[in-house]
Amino acid sequence: MKTVFKTQSIKNLLFITILSICLVGCNGKLPGGDARKFPADPELRVKQNLEEGRGFRLSEFGNNNSGTFEFASSNELWRASLDVVDFMPLLSVNYSGGIIITDWYSSEENSNEYIKISIRFLTNEVRSDALDIKIFNKKCNSNLISCKISQNESILNIELKKEILKKASVYKKENTEKNKKEYKTRRKTKNYYK
Length: 194
Prior knowledge:
Alpha-D-Glucose-1,6-Bisphosphate, Chain A, domain 4, 40% helix, five-stranded antiparallel beta sheet, alpha+beta, elongated, single chain
């Protein structure tokens, strides 16, 4: 009986140790964030999280919404990027990999010059360093046999990034307002804190 108790105690201690290591990680900080940025009152924290779209309710898990996927449409940068390059055919779109690659595109005025855009997402936050945009030019001779491809570091790159960030900030503002309205409506109809 004592050996079973000792074995169980050792297993429990080992489990708690591994769990502590996983939670603390390499940087020595617990996950979560800076406590100074969040209110101390739990009700205010819940309200802030729901208004910012970071909250969830256990009652939502029982709903039959299993066929709806809103992950990509809720990411403002992703939506804005797709809207901006909407005029071009898409070659590869990978939300989980965080990349959009267009196919070669040419206007009718200059059919010997083609453009291709690659947008890589470095973070989901709407900020200037969230995107890595590369623009490639392909210039072909008149019979389209010989082509030269080069990476373009022009003003178009900067303008494209500005346009995406501008649209993304509009989407973020709309999403925040929508979440605030939903929260206020639900708060009036049902008490979610108790």
